[in-house]
Write a structure and sequence with these properties.
Blueprint: H1 22-29, H2 36-44, H3 53-61, H4 69-75, H5 78-82, H6 88-107, H7 119-130, E1 137-143, E2 149-157, H8 167-176, E3 181-187, H9 197-213, E4 217-223, E5 228-230
Parallel strand pairs: 3-4
Antiparallel strand pairs: 1-2, 1-3, 4-5
Length: 237
């Protein structure tokens, strides 16, 4: 017997009263008006005998192992999601496909000629890509003389420290691309973007290196879970 067998008498979104159906509300008011659970319910479409699709989605978003919400759905393995009662492989595939589309949309967003005028612009560009990473990733945003993005380069993976983050790795592409300036960006997997002592130490070293090379480091943005900190705004560089 399949591990995913359960009562086939299921509650669908069609069973909702008119005006309360997530799909109809999305069409009338826009996707931004729906909760995470309602958006997931539209994706999985059906619940089970005891739960509507929204109820099932709410339970799913409670997560496990310390993770919850959309972050849990993103990081959970296919096997882990499939083994949740009421989900199974078909719904898992639908959820994972929808999340992957979202990731690809943001990762392929046009970055060329994207002008940076403030820390919010950097966060807007990279928040969705970096907020859920389970390890620290350091990236460098290369800018031309008009503060337009030339490219975004990966520098290192792992906790920031001066032995791992070498100025050579940070500036080699900047030199090759004749960058006018750079912005450093890294994430904190804990979700808290507060800078550590080592973050500040590494940043100051890279700022000094940039001054010697004539490629100023304009800022260092630390990405958390839906929030960020600019070391420039905090007067830490």
């Amino acid at each position: 017997m399949s591990a995913y067998n359960y009562d086939e008498s299921r509650l669908t979104i069609k069973d909702f009263p008119e005006g309360e159906k997530p799909r109809e509300r999305l069409l009338k008011y826009g996707a931004e008006s729906l909760t995470d659970a309602e958006l997931i319910a539209i994706i999985i479409r059906i619940g089970n005998r005891n739960e509507t699709a929204v109820d099932l989605s709410q339970r799913l978003l409670k997560g496990k192992n310390g993770l919850q919400g959309l972050r849990f759905l993103l990081e959970a393995s296919i096997e882990e999601l499939s083994n949740i009662k009421g989900i199974g492989p078909a719904k898992t595939a639908q959820i994972k496909a929808a999340l992957e589309i979202g990731k690809r949309l943001f990762s392929t967003k046009q970055k060329e000629q994207y002008a940076i005028s403030c820390p919010d612009d950097v966060a807007h560009l990279l928040m969705s890509e970096m907020r859920y990473l389970d390890k620290e990733h350091l990236k460098v945003v290369l800018l031309n003389m008009k503060n337009q993005v030339l490219s975004i380069e990966d520098v290192s993976v792992g906790s920031l420290n001066s032995s791992i983050v070498h100025p050579r790795e940070v500036f080699k592409t900047a030199i090759r691309r004749s960058s006018g300036s750079v912005i450093l960006v890294h994430n904190h997997p804990s979700g808290d973007p507060a800078p550590s002592v080592e973050d500040i130490k590494v940043t100051k070293r890279l700022v000094e290196s940039g001054e010697l090379l004539g490629i100023p480091v304009l800022d260092h943005i630390i990405i958390g879970d839906g929030k960020f900190i600019s070391l420039k705004e905090k007067d830490l560089i």
